[in-house]
Design goal:
Radius of gyration: 15 Å
Strand order of the largest sheet: 3-4-2-1-7-8-9
Number of strands: 9
Distance between the termini: 20 Å
Structural class: alpha/beta
Strand content: 15-25%
Helix content: 25-40%
Length: about 200
């Protein structure tokens, strides 16, 4: 059951190898009036500063920042997990924590997806993009179990297809789409859930 059912919808996105290009293409296609909050985990080096918020800000129409611990969540904003920190979702706010690595990563996709499912239930849209290994598959399953919408990038389009293929093999995902289709679906569902 969703603890924060009256909240605006949220979109959680996970990516790994090849994910930067997929994220840039996706953000570029989202409209300036996109009504949902977006949270992104990209597997990155724990020691190098992340330029992802600046890259996404330049590519698209939405405001993009690194997630900040204890900050409120605002619609139409993109929050990126900072290097070497997990991004967790609570009803109306976010946590950025050190925590142990999950699936060999920090930030990891599963903690973001899992906490989003618990906090927002059927008002979560989970998206897995290009990547290796399997981080995000269990979290996508959690989103599905809580009534959220699950989307995976078409493995034929993904730069690295292992992560999308693993998710498709283990979760009854709602949609398998290329980036353009994901952007269109996100825009449509954001409008419907915000109504």
């Amino acid at each position: 059951m969703c603890e924060y059912a009256s909240a605006s919808p949220i979109v959680v996105i996970g990516a790994s190898a090849g994910g930067v290009q997929a994220l840039l293409e996706l953000v570029q296609l989202l409209p300036a009036n996109f009504g949902a909050s977006i949270f992104i985990v990209l597997h990155t080096s724990p020691t190098l500063p992340s330029r992802l918020p600046k890259l996404l800000q330049t590519a698209g129409h939405l405001s993009v920042t690194h997630a900040v611990d204890q900050a409120e969540i605002y619609p139409g904003h993109i929050y990126v997990a900072p290097p070497d920190r997990h991004l967790l979702i609570k009803p109306g706010w976010m946590q950025v924590v050190l925590g142990p690595k999950e699936n060999r990563f920090r930030p990891a996709i599963d903690p973001l997806f899992r906490t989003a499912a618990l906090a927002y239930g059927d008002r979560v849209i989970g998206v897995l993009l290009s990547g290796a290994l399997y981080d995000g598959t269990a979290g996508l399953f959690d989103i599905k179990q809580h009534g959220g919408l699950t989307i995976v990038q078409d493995p034929e389009e993904a730069f690295v297809s292992a992560l999308p293929r693993h998710a498709i093999a283990h979760v009854a995902v709602d949609h398998i789409l290329p980036i353009a289709g994901i952007a269109q679906l996100l825009s449509t569902f954001s409008e419907q859930l915000s109504a």
